[in-house]
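Can anyone check this?
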Amino acid sequence: MEEQRHKNFGFVSGIPKNVTFEGAKRKKRYLSFEVMCPGHDGSLTAYGRMRGDETELKSFHTFCEKNPGSPVRLKGVINQFTSNDEGARRLTNFTFFRWEPAVTGDYKAAFVVIGELLGKDISEGEGMLTITISRPTNQEGEEQTESEPLVFHVINSKEIEELTEGSLIEIKGKLRPRTPESEYGEATSPIRPYVEKIRIIG
């Protein structure tokens, strides 16, 4: 059976906050919101949008209004963009298409990506992977052939020393700080998409 050559899957479970409709009513509206994901690495916030069927959007919006503080599970894709501020930071968020109520417990913002390794940067003991993935088919079934680069971080640079550019790889990971919060609950590093597992496909 042939391996899937490209994949972009995002999965977030947590407590939604500030759920609001955006976009003009005469165009496709979407929901913009935050997801609080408290965990053993400390509390983090995942930012996302929900697009797609209006009925799905309304059901999620209504659920959040009637059940404030209730956890949900969201499925979609992971995105990245460069901010317009002076630092021009690379930011990560999610686009969701499906949701369901969840029970309390394992909150996280995770991803699975399969794509071609375009390059790697090993500096200051922290590796950085850049891969290209094909954009997923959108909700209307229109194929989008453009590809966009995504940047992922690796804590142990030895994990990527043997990887060669052009390889097809699968990575699995989560949004998290490089190091957990201190004993005083203080954040000790920025929240970034860190790779936890790497598999060479071809």
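Reply from J.R.: I decoded it. Residues 54-66 form the longest helix (13 residues).
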